[in-house]
Amino acid sequence: SIGDGANDVSMIQVADTGVGISGQEGMQAVMASDFAISQFRHLRKLLLVHGHWCYTRLTNMVLYYFYKNVAYVNLLFWYQFFCGFSGTSMTDYWILILFNLLFTSVPPIIYGVLDKDVSAEILMQLPQLYMM
After folding, report:
1. What pTM was computed for the model?
2. What value, to the nearest 5°, has the Cα angle with vertex 111 and ends 110 and 116?
3. When you count CB atoms within 10 A of the terminal residue's CB, does the N or C end of the chain come out lower?
4. How many domains, in total, are found in the chain?
5. 84-129 pLDDT, tens per residue?
6. Partners of residue 23 on adjacent β-strands
7. pLDDT digits over 32-61, tens only?
8. Which residue segment(s) compose the domain that 18 sits in?
9. Are residues 110 and 80 in the same domain?
């Protein structure tokens, strides 16, 4: 939802994503929103460019986390055949913590900073790419 006045605060708070536009009515809607823009014309770039990038990053990271966990569980599964299902630990706890820290925090940061599948100019010229 989009709000630009004090009466829109409750509408922004119940929406999935609230966009506040600062205007003459005050800053209440902007303070209650998830995203704040200064003019209505910036809404196009917020939706078409940043919305597209956020959606592609989010979907790729969900797939990455599934892949990471499946790879580690398969490793544990095949290790149990190797050790005869004795229940021994394959790795020390500090290695498991390092694995999760390294493969859960570093790739999203790098991916979030560097990944832009389509440039902002092309996304603004072709709004149909948002539907993909």
Report:
1. 0.63
2. 125
3. C
4. 2
5. 888 777 878 888 888 888 878 888 888 878 888 888 888 888 887 7
6. 26
7. 777 777 777 777 777 778 788 888 888 888
8. 2-37
9. yes
